[in-house]
Amino acid sequence: MPDMKVEVPIEDDVLLKVDHLCQYFGPMKAVDDVSFTVKKGEVFGLVGESGCGKTTTGRSIIKLYDITSGSVYFKGVRVCAGKKSFYDAIREARKEFREKSRDASPEEKAALKAKMDAIIAEQQENIKKADYDNKNCDKEYIEKLRAAAEEKYRPLIDSAATAEEKARLTREYRNELRKASKTKLITKIQMIFQDPIASLDPRMTVREIISEGLLIQGEKDQKVIEQKVYEMLELVGLVREHASRYPHEFSGGQRQRIGVARSIIMNPDMIIADEPVSALDVSIQAQVINLLNDLREKFGLTILFIAHNLSVVKYFSDRIGVMYYGKLVELAPSDELFLNPLHPYTRSLLSAIPLPDPLYEKTRQRVTYNPLAEHDYSVDKPSLREVKPGHFVMCNQAEFDRYMAILK
User: Fold this and answer.
1) 183 Cβ contact partners less than 8 Å away, ≥ 6 residues apart
2) Rounded distance between C-alpha atoms, residue 322 and residue 314, angstroms
3) How far is Cα 322 from Cα 292, in angstroms, rounded to an integer?
4) Which segments of 135-269 are extended strands (E)?
5) 3-state secondary structure (DSSP) of residue 141
6) 203 and 247 Cβ atoms separated by less than 8 Å
């Protein structure tokens, strides 16, 4: 069914596109209509208070949850597709038909039914496309890996000088094909979890923890696995002797480095770092952040950095998105956000940043955010609007006009 594939125009430099993402748990809207893009090679910071939906956004992107509505595109392929909005549109069309057809003439009723049928047909087609993409998003990626393996190994096998060399290359080729068939596109996104001890299995050694992804992918060569584990340990500042130890034998910072090694060994294009330093003391925080920076430069990684600490986010991120109660309320380049914070919640967050200056701290004024007092959305509903190139704010028309006046 090749015609079922959804194609969307995505800029060449965009690696991840989150489009109207919704993640509901019953009546609770953990993430509600969030949209943003992450460009190749950049660090995109996601900040907000506890419970605002940052972690849920990251977990939804890597398909730990089946998303409720919206779409997630990775490398131009739709890897997640929610269907609630399509079912809602069908229910709304039927409800509208029932209400309007009560007092309608036969001709009007026929026109209303034709309109309802057209909406239902369109939404059912969208549901089919969503189901198709959810099930088949990996097929094209697997075919690319198999083609790359064939292009690499076929000439080598054909030109092998001895039978032994030919047999060795054939084994490697079949191994690559087997691994390709077990690979999923979403594994090119890896996650570093918030709690460095809860995310590591206490019954597994460090070697088993770091190599687990390779085993799931289908790698069977123990020498290759062991060599890669040692490389990753040294890369994150640990030593080979640590491979035989268990998580409880390490400090918090060392455990987080093990988590980083576990994600890097899969050779990802993108890492979602879910508050990777919040459970660590300040000196260790700096070490882990510098490690991520070094890995970013070495491997050309793209990072979605979820954090509370705004000072760390400002230092580490190229662009920042601010979330509040499941909504993305402001999005801007890092320097621009700190220079011109416009949404009241963003200003409230920035006012909470302490500075190592006793005189400033004595006079620092905290800005409190009260949504009921700040906004009147009873008639004029808000949307994410661009106030400057690359600077978006959740606002209605009246607030948009006020923000534009402030910027001018």
Assistant:
1) 138, 141, 142, 145, 217, 218
2) 12
3) 22
4) 189-192
5) helix
6) no
